[in-house]
Each structure stands twice: as C-alpha cells, then as structure tokens.
Amino acid sequence: MIPPYLWQEMAQLTGEHFVLVLVSMVIAAGAGLPLGILLTRRASLRTPLLGFANVMQTIPSLALFGFLIPIPLIGGIGKRTAIVALVLYALLPILRNTLAGILGVDAAVRESAIAMGMTGRQLLWEVELPLAAPTILAGIRIATVTTIGTATIAAAIGGGGLGVFIFRGIASVDTTQILAGAIPAALLALLSDGGFSWIERRLTEPRT
Amino acid sequence: MALRGKSLDSSLSAGPALEFRGVSYRINGNLILDNLSFGIEPGRTLVLLGRSGSGKTTALKMLNGLLLPTSGQVLVESRATSDWDLIELRRSIGYVIQEVGLFPHFTIGENVGLVPRLNGWTADRITARVAELLHQVGLEPARFLNRYPRELSGGQRQRVGVARALAAEPKLLLFDEPFGALDPVTRVELQDQFLELRDRLGKTTIFFTHDVREALRLCSEIALLHRGRLEVLAKPAEFLNSSGPEARAFLSTL
Q: Which helix (H) or strand (E) segment is B32 a member of?
C-alpha cells in the first residue's frame, strides 16, 4: 500500500518521531514524578500546580506550538520547541496519577509503616511508591500514547517526525503520504500501550 | 560502693516498663485524655479497655510517639517519649495492628523481617530469625515465607502480624485490637497462642480492646478508659466486682 520510494523516509521519520516522544517523556516523567511526590507533601501547592497543568492541557495543541515560537530560549522553530510543548502536555496525567496513587495508599498501611519505625524516606521508597506504582505507571502510559499522537503536530513548527508526511499529504492531497505518517504513528502508540500494560501486569501480578 | 550499686540496680528494675504520668491530650478545645496515670511492671500485661471514642486510640498514639501529650508524660523505659528518638522508640516497640496492617507488596518473610532489616541486621540473621518466628506462631516457614498476605486467611495473617511484632526483640509489645476482625473460633485460638507466648517470652505488653471477655482472659490488669478518664484500674478478679457504671456496662455484656 505504501510504495517503496517512501520506505526509507518513513523509517527515518519514525525514528525521529520515536526520539521526540522518548525525550519528551523522559523529561515529563523526570519532572512530573518528583513534583507529584512534592504535591503529596504540600497540599497548598496542589491547586496552583495542577491548575497550571490543567490549563496547559486545554490549550489546543496547534495553538500551543504557535505560542511557543516567539518565546526566547524554549521557543523558536524546531525540535526543542516541540519537546517543550509535548512535555507540557504530558505533565498533567503524570502529576495527577502520582498524586492520586500515593494518596490512595491505604492509610492503615501508611500508619503502620510509621509506627514500625520507618523514616519518611523509607516510607516513600518502600511503601508509598511501590503501592502507587500501578497508578503512576498508568499515568505515564496515558501520557505516552497521547504524546505519540500529539507529536505529529511537531512537524508544523519544523520539529520533524511522522507529522512531516501528514502535513505534506494534506497540502498535496496525497492520501498515501498521510497514511505513511498515520500508520506508523498508530503502530507506535499500540506498541507502547502494549509494552506498558505488560509492565503493569508484571508489577501487580505477585500480590493479586 | 556496693550499696550504691545495689540501689542503682533496684531503681532500674523497679520502675515500670511503661508509665502514663498525668497524661492529658486536648485538641480543638476537646479534652480527649484527662489526667491519665498508670504503669505496667516489666513482664506484665495490661489491657486498656474502652468503647470507641473512649480515648484508646489516642492513648495508643501517645505510646509510639505519633502524638505527644498536651500535659503530663508517657514514659517508656523511664524515658519520656518526648525525649526519645521517635524512630528508635517505634522500632523498640513490637506493634500488632488492628486489621493486621501487613504490607501487601511484601512477602510474609519480608513483612516479618521488616524491623530487623530497618535496624540493619545481616541477611543471614534476619532469615534465621524469620524462620524461628514463623515457627513460633505456628506457620511452617517453608510454606509461608514467599507468599503474599492476600493469599493467607485472616487468622494466618494475624499470626504473621504477631511474628512481625516480635521480630526485632522489642522491649514492649503493643496490641491494638488485633483479634477483633476474626471469627470467634480463630480468635480464641489466637488468644491461646497469645497467652502461651506471653508466658514463654515474658514481655511487657499493653493490649487495647473493647472486648471485656478478651480483657479478662488475657491480662494481669485491666485499665478501663471512659471519655478520656481512667475509671477502673484493677486485677481481673477485682474488676468483676467493680461498681462503676461504665464497668457495669461492660460486665453486662458477658
């Protein structure tokens, strides 16, 4: 269905797309997890931080990419801007699920950990995070699958990825090119979703 | 010199292992505990009996330093909880929790070996200790070591809870309504085991319950708590003859 002359470019753009998503997710998880943990300890920060992440989520993605172009340092044309936007989108599900996962740990289990003489750090690493892991992972999973889709818009600001095919296909009314972008993006999303669900099962299996 | 040594010795062994000394706790203008005073001699078992809302849970949280008294002192080993390093205090109290409180993501072995591990025991020593304890509470180590709490019955889980509390050789045992959620037959089995362990180990124990039958069965002394006050402090035989209204209310459930 996809003619051979597109294969090489498809492989290259899929690779670009993958890297775009991977880098964004590493940054989003790297920021979202500690921030989410912070929110469990400081209730006063919850409203402003979740509010910010919520607002980011409501901005239409094409508009957010556009807004970022004139901003110095994080903006402009290219991959960096695309990554900034993707991180802002991915933040909310990660933050929210980290918070919900840790707050959802049975109060009796938490209290017994404290009463057994665990320090705050031990409570976090040995009890709260392992028990919240499935919920946190679900947040990262949602964020990743969404990001794979949203990342196609990166092409609009010169960020590359599979969106290049899609935009070009739309501009030249060429369904083949649109499919050459859409099919690998959908496959990436399915694969990562499957990968995460496998990890989730591994994490919860022994105790259920 | 000899005399001085002797008096020091006796002052160390004579003090109660645990003492509430004029303990009051007030929050938002409500007096939860009102001038509570009692002690437990080393090796004895005291049951703190009271209905829900009597202040039992607050008294318990005073013991492991989750709360500090508004006035008065809780002394563990003659040292006020406010002077203890709280982490050290909690690790030296064996705590058997209401509804078990085992960690669902730890195996039975990991649950029992928790406090020894927190205290930095070597892996070999923990393994040996865990096997010994599971044996003591009547669970065959080979069968249970690598299973998860969810795979066990309520009674088995509670046995694990007891083993976990004993693991790090605590000075003091604290039982928080441990058998409340069990069926009557299993409850009696575990009470029997409690008595057997008590006689064998001779640990100072404080036991919280709202079940007067359990209280009479297990303790050397009963402290009856009502609306934050100590209503009765008596041996079981004397408690049966108490005339106070709250004591009568409890005795009428027999």
A: strand B30-40
